[in-house]
Amino acid sequence: MIYLDCAATSLQKPREVPYAVSHAMTTMASPGRGCHKPAMMAADCVLNCRIMLASYFNVSEPENVIFTLNATHGLNIAINSLVSENDKVVISGYEHNSVTRPLKALNADVLIARSRLFDQKATVEAFRQALPGAKCAVCTHVSNAFGFILPIREIAELCRDLQVPLIIDASQSAGTLPLDFSKLGAQFIAMPGHKGLLGPQGTGVLLCGGKSKPLIFGGTGSNSAENLMPDFLPDRLEAGTHNVAGVAGLMQGVKFIMSKPEGAIFRHEKSLCRAFAEKIYTIPGLKLFFDETMKSQSGVLSIMSERLSSDVIAERLGKADICVRAGLHCTPTAHETVGTIEEGTVRFSFSPFNTFSEIDYTASTLKNVLNKL
Question: Residue 318 pLDDT more than 80?
């Protein structure tokens, strides 16, 4: 099997990740729920992972690193902390439903700063024009559908200058691209544990830089006599039992990433993306959403065919044991921006564990699928 759906979930992980999950499930209890050894082991595991993530993302206090169920959970916390009904909120033209749906539920006044695909200058200008008067801004770092790397540093600077709180969705960049929380000055950065950080599903991280509002209420193992949630982090945002096994696996995924030379994973994924694009761009009737300079594209490539629907292409590749994703990728906003909302695209997304021989086989198989027509 060739797995090229890493923008959804990293299926291939360092071998230490499943081992850590299994070990935690059989040796650790719940942090903050006792002073016995299994509880203390769990507390140490969660704290050590929190400290590691704070170091990796340059968060001044480990307590500001919050464990969530996934990036969607973190984004909901962030949005509900900053946005009220009728607030003007500026978003990019590439946002995921995990941003647009919470904003719709809050009845926010959403302004989309649309820009051409792979055009970073136009994206900055779109935000420059849209931000004045906004209560909040939300921007994805990398488009999950097209791999477009948005100019997040420049957008963050605009938000700081205008004192507009910024929420960053780092679902497709965490673990691959540099993310310096302190330098960006965002109010929140949300990310999943199961994508670029190579952790288990059901894990996520929210980096907090200011006041926050609990989304879930319940036990925290602290201040148990009070009816209100604690007013301090991380307890304020971490109600209920932690996914200790997931955190243990996540810590090993982050360790793997930190053991690599800076930028090595990103360069590998981009090289795979470029190699694949070069092998398939001559296929008749095939459209590639590709930045030839690769300056503003990550290891994600979307395609469309004039001859066969995206769903059928993905299905036929699946029968050849090649795993990709077709459709709108939970981001209709991005497909509306690019003009692919009717059909969607076939997305190929690469990981540190994919090889060039897999790219060769996938390109050959795609050619066969389309040539059989």
Answer: yes
